[in-house]
Amino acid sequence: MRVSVTPDNNQLRGLSRQEFPAFSCPADLEAAIERSQNYLLQVQKPEGYWVGELMVDSTLVSDMVAYHHWDGSVDASWERKAVNHIFSMQLPDGGWNIYYGGPAEVNATIKAYLALKLAGVSVTDPRMLRARELALNLGGVPRMNTFSKLYLALIGLFPWEYVPTIPCEVLLIGKWFHVNFWDMSNWSRAMLVPLAIINHFKPTRLPKKQVSLDELYPQGFHERDLALPPDPERISLRNFFLWLDRLHKLAEWFAGHGLHPFRKRALKKCEQFMLERFEGSDGLAAIFPAILNSIIALKALGYSRDNPRLQRQWQQLKRLQHETPQSVRIEPCFSPVWDTAIVAICLRESGIPAEHPRMKQACEWLMAKEIRFRGDWHHKNPVDVEPSGWVFEYENKWNPDVDDTAMVLLALRQIPTDRPKARDECFQRGLKWMMAFQCRDGGWAAFDKDCTKNILEKVPFADHNAMLDPECADITARILELLGCEGWPADHPQVQKGLDYIRRQQEQDGSWYGRWGVNYIYGTWQVLRGLRAMNLNMNQPWLIQARDWLESVQHEDGGWGERCNTYDDPVFKGQGPSTASQTAWALMGLCAFDDPHRPSIRRGIEYLIRSQNADGSWTEHETTGTGFPRVFYLKYDMYRNAWPLLAFATYRKLLPLSQAESARINGAERPMAQSSTTTTASPATGVRQDLSR
After folding, report:
1. Which of 46, 126, 391, 590 is most buried (most C-beta within 10 Å)?
2. ∠550-596-2 over CA atoms, to 5°?
3. Whether residue 403 lies in the annotated active site
4. 82 and 110 part of one domain
5. Catalytic residue among 245, 403, 463, 469
6. What is the distance between the alpha carbons of residues 523 and 260, in angstroms, rounded to a whole number?
């Protein structure tokens, strides 16, 4: 239940410092910080990094079951574990969702139903009957997205004629054309190239166990339900692309008879694209969909099962699987760079000393992960800048991204090293590289610069809601936070453009949309923290409005929570069970106003202390990470244990000196309880800066 904004609540917020003390027991806060620090240090890997599991819905396991039946490589023991996992995620109504606590979703439900049917589960099983009824209520197979239908076509369950064409020739279109291959998002390029190869060969293989999905067509299996519905407006971009798709289908017929003039060249280009990007990467783009697609594409091209390149892709796919005696689950990718940067920041700001060997180890690991290679980013951003940047995963040299780079730079400026000169040079390269990615309107996106041509969202195969890589407030604010910590002035031209962008993106109620975290709590926190680091006047009405919005959605238990349904309808913003990670974000947003005495902050801190487990961790079931809004979400398992520590540290630095001193005295015998204010030499300026802001 949420606390609504009422006059009484507003009066509570206005209590003076004498009337409402900042925190009743600083010793409890210090104990919670120490527990959290100890927990995070215990889960650090021997090599110096941290990595938490990325937990997702059932679709990846369902896809793998279907793949094994297409490939004829079914392992009965593995499949039994997959069935257990899929059933474990079934909802009481019979469907499967795409985020914890969410409603059943048509693609996830039909994929799970198909996987279970392929695995031999009887259609008369009560769980299957419920799934069938729910799938029909959701619209059945006709309502699945393009990529899902393509997988069905691979095993003969959907006619290729009605799968939107992904033409290989898209790679031949030059950058001079208004819309070309490089205008697609980084992740879409990696997924679509192997799919274009698959689309050409149409390598349908009927499973040994013949199955059908005819029962999942609400009106019966009929052509009228197979084709994509046109736009009611006769003249529209969607209808133009549907007409263009019919032309592609005609071209496909000519290609199948060896009469397409560019197909052979285009296929070779697609193959070369994949093979090149296998190098220096944990599989194609180091993400599950692209890796799986590339394996199918290689087999369609005629690569033998024992081909070294195909074998390497298979091994990378297997690495993503977590197999237990009774179950198997799959991660979409790994997140060691992202997790390591976040945890390192949390530990340093919470008082882990600069000379701590674990911090030095983390610094060296992050420095070693810098990418000194001119990857695919240069097609959209051909600027003369020295290659640098960091990725999300272990190895993915073609795709360094702005968001990870910003987080790593925030970490590098704080964590120690025995090689300060090398670190400072690394920092400077990364900073210059990142600053070259500012988009025209002043914001920053994840991978590319100005990847915002909306026409791409109208193509028939764009229903995965991820064709573009638009700039967003959360990434832009994180970069402003870094620049503020480095002493960049607010009137610097690039900073000013970023601030203007942030101001334009604010919602009417004062919040900000969060692209890469759920959702408005994430976006609002990151903006407020970033602007505070820039030393802006936080008492401006538009910022006070953001603070008031955060306080208006605080729950009665003192925490904050928000679910992924906010991406479907903003009416749900700020609603959902309280979580440790989202409570931490909201608290850090409120702390940007330098007033630790607000009741909302005290209640939030008490919630985090009260909900902490004895080992220093927090329990969190909710999904708080975003992959593709409305399509794919992520539960970062490291979030629940890292962000609360940073919230504690941020709050502690605002406490009056007497309370901070008392806390340090109480924890004087604990080697991890350091000064509540951390300082470091800035790699950019060499000037010591107070990191409490």
Report:
1. 391
2. 30
3. yes
4. yes
5. 403
6. 48
